[in-house]
Design a protein that fits this description.
Layout: E1 3-9, H1 18-27, E2 36-42, E3 49-54, H2 66-83, E4 87-93, E5 99-105, H3 110-117, E6 124-129, E7 132-138, H4 141-147, E8 157-163, E9 178-179, E10 187-194, H5 197-206, H6 216-229, H7 234-244, E11 247-255, E12 258-263, E13 272-275, E14 279-283, H8 286-290, E15 307-311
Antiparallel strand pairs: 1-8, 1-14, 2-7, 2-8, 3-5, 3-6, 4-5, 9-10, 10-11, 11-12, 12-15, 13-14
Length: about 300
């Protein structure tokens, strides 16, 4: 079931409330996934980096010393980052208190830094990059957006996911999107299933990659990021994925300056698309697109085997 969505603005230099727009799209598909909601949001590229860290699950089963423990986590993460050579600009805590976002300058190995932060007990780096911020939590889009003040998020493009849990727990760890750890600014949402998931996981782990989940969306993200790290364009990487990743799926991939969609050769998973001179919006259902385009529109469903990429 689940619902996926993407949006990218094409009027360069104009600021957009991408958090608000993505929330409207995902909330329109609440019936496809009420368990958790996730966003991969892109700001205009900054001079430094931004890292979003999950501190604890917002599951209602919290121990009595949660506040004290979260405070220790934040202090430990800040100390570790400074010890690694990071120059911290700002630290923001969300209204949920279960996550923190750190803006910082850094010259060094991002993988080593992320690993060091995750040595803090229960901490998980959800995203790291110059533009990307992944936010995901339990509940529908309206709930998550309110908790994280997403209506105020100004950016250039985004993807989102409304999840209905079928094969794994209802928790943040299994919510989408997924960052392509440790590659900065690459994230994926998808609807479907990879049938050669275990084969690719073993290949990528042998290449030195590690995974935060058992989700095949994370495999797609790391696969694409590795191809791009080897010199392929996003579009070429996505086209290659259709011959190397088996299954029935539609996925949306985002980088710091692009959004792309790919459908497998059977084309069984739904996706509708609207494109104009100002905006590209795509989603599992047309009702989501109509929430962000305020005039009569015509949408279409990309053909099976299609790969399409747009840049900011």
């Amino acid at each position: 079931m689940c619902g996926i969505a993407g949006i990218i603005y094409r009027d360069e230099g104009v600021e957009h409330q991408v958090g608000r727009d993505m929330t409207a799209m995902l909330q329109a598909m609440k019936h496809r996934g009420p368990d958790s909601t996730g966003y991969a949001l892109y700001r205009p590229e900054a001079e430094g980096y931004v890292m979003h860290v999950k501190l604890a699950e917002a599951n209602g089963h919290q121990d009595f010393d949660l506040g004290e423990r979260l405070g220790r986590q934040r202090a430990d993460i800040e100390a570790r980052m400074k010890a690694s050579g990071a120059t911290i600009n700002t630290i923001d805590s969300t209204t949920t208190d279960h996550a923190m976002t750190v803006s910082f300058g850094f010259e060094g190995d991002l993988k080593r830094l992320a690993d060091y932060v995750e040595d803090v007990r229960d901490a998980e780096v959800l995203s790291l990059g110059r533009s990307l911020e992944i936010i995901k939590d339990l509940g529908d889009a309206a709930t998550v957006a309110a908790d994280y003040n997403l209506d105020e998020f100004i950016g250039t493009h985004a993807i989102g996911h409304a999840r209905m849990a079928t094969e794994s727990d209802v928790d943040i760890a299994n919510a989408h999107p997924y960052w392509a750890y440790p590659f900065p600014d690459v994230a994926v949402v998808h609807n479907g299933q990879l049938t050669n998931y275990h084969q690719w996981r073993r290949r990528l782990e042998r290449a030195g990659h590690r995974f935060q989940s058992e989700c095949d969306s994370e495999i797609i993200a790391v696969y694409l990021a590795e191809r791009m790290a080897q010199g392929d364009s996003l579009e070429d990487s996505m086209r290659r994925s259709l011959s190397e990743l088996d299954g029935v799926f539609t996925y949306i991939c985002v980088t710091e300056d692009a959004l792309g969609v790919a459908k497998d050769e059977l084309g069984a998973k739904p996706l509708v698309l609207y494109e104009s001179d100002d905006i590209v919006a795509l989603a599992s259902e047309e009702i989501a697109i109509r929430k962000v385009v305020d005039h009569e529109i015509e949408t279409y469903d990309p053909y099976e085997g299609a790969v399409m990429v747009w840049t900011t």
